[in-house]
Amino acid sequence: MADVIASTHPKKEDDSLLDPDFMTRLEQLEIVSRKIHASRQKGERRSRRKGESAEFADYRNYVRGDDLRHIDWNVYARLDRLFLKLFLEEEDLNVSVLVDVSKSMDSGEPSKALYAKRVAAAMAYIALCNYDRVTLCAYHENIVGFQQGLRGRRMMPQVVKFLDEIPIEGKSHFAVAARQFALRQTQKGVVLLLSDFMDKGGFEAGFRYLLGRQMDIYALQILSPQEVEPDLTGDLRLVDVEDEDVAEITVSKLLLDKYKANLQAYCESIRQYCTQRGVSYYLAITKHPFETLVLNYLRQRGLVR
């Protein structure tokens, strides 16, 4: 298991994405779709659709032309009527994780980017352990990293390498990236979006592209403690880390209160937008352990069980 979490370049010990003990706990979980989607290939996931797998689902009356091999002859012997056995269809679950790697994510203590990568690695590992099909997508102004069709836990080192090597840079443009993703990922499934949503272009257009694919969408907004409760005083010159816009301000209690109110209103607007469209939204602060997020919150929301 050590090979799974090894970094491809030297880094601090606390920068490792997943702890081996935590990975063992993740192996007991599985990702659940609120809607079980059909894909083009049969797989390990059981569906509510009736098919020809080994697991019995129900009976129906025999009609002329049905496959005689599926008649339950024991029932016929008791009731003198022909019934056909129906079985659960087996099909793939596609799990996609979209990670915002724009420059604004490279801030806070703990780092928002590291937090997002850890959640992405955890969700990918759960899916791989259950033989789901995993897609990883990293974006800022557009998609800067994309891996599709990963399957089986042997692919976990590739997941870690992908997340480790993606640089945190560039401006965020969620709408462009979401459109590119929707064009590439044509199969339905579960989508987990990890971002701070600090995007001057807004968030609505990006969500519309994902909603158009009729996917099960989970949006995790990640903020740092310093963003939620800034500890600033005096005259400051603020520089936007993504586009280098400059603002000179004098920090006062009135200004801080206004900032907090604006941030709360913005987060609430995302939550309302998501709730009205069937998207599961959660605000995560990086001071809270990501392990708790995965094991508790995502379980409560029904994404994992």
Structural class: alpha/beta
- The number of strands is 10
Report helical residue fraction.
Answer: 25-40%
Q: What Rg is obtained from the alpha carbons, in whole angstroms?
A: 23 Å
Shape: elongated
Highest CATH level, the class of the largest domain: Alpha Beta
Q: End-to-end distance, in Å?
A: 23 Å
Query: Can you list the strand order of the major beta sheet?
Result: 5-4-3-6-7-10
Q: What average pLDDT do the residues reach?
A: 84
Secondary-structure element order, N to C: HHEHEEHEEHHEHEHEEHEH
Percent of sequence in beta strands: 25-35%
Question: How many domains, in number, for the residues?
Answer: 2
Sheet of most strands: 6 strands, mixed
The parts where pLDDT drops under 50 for at least 5 residues are 1-13, 37-44, 46-53
Return the CATH architecture of the largest domain: 3-Layer(aba) Sandwich
User: If helices are DSSP runs of H or I spanning 4 or more residues, what is the number of helices?
Assistant: 10
* Annotated CATH topology of the largest domain: Rossmann fold
Write the layout of secondary structure elements.
Layout: H1 2-5, H2 20-26, E1 45-61, H3 73-79, E2 83-91, E3 94-100, H4 112-129, E4 133-139, E5 143-150, H5 156-165, H6 174-184, E6 190-195, H7 204-211, E7 216-223, H8 225-228, E8 234-239, E9 246-251, H9 253-276, E10 280-285, H10 290-300
Parallel strand pairs: 3-4, 3-6, 6-7, 7-10
Antiparallel strand pairs: 1-2, 4-5, 8-9
Helix pairs in contact: 4-5, 4-10, 6-7
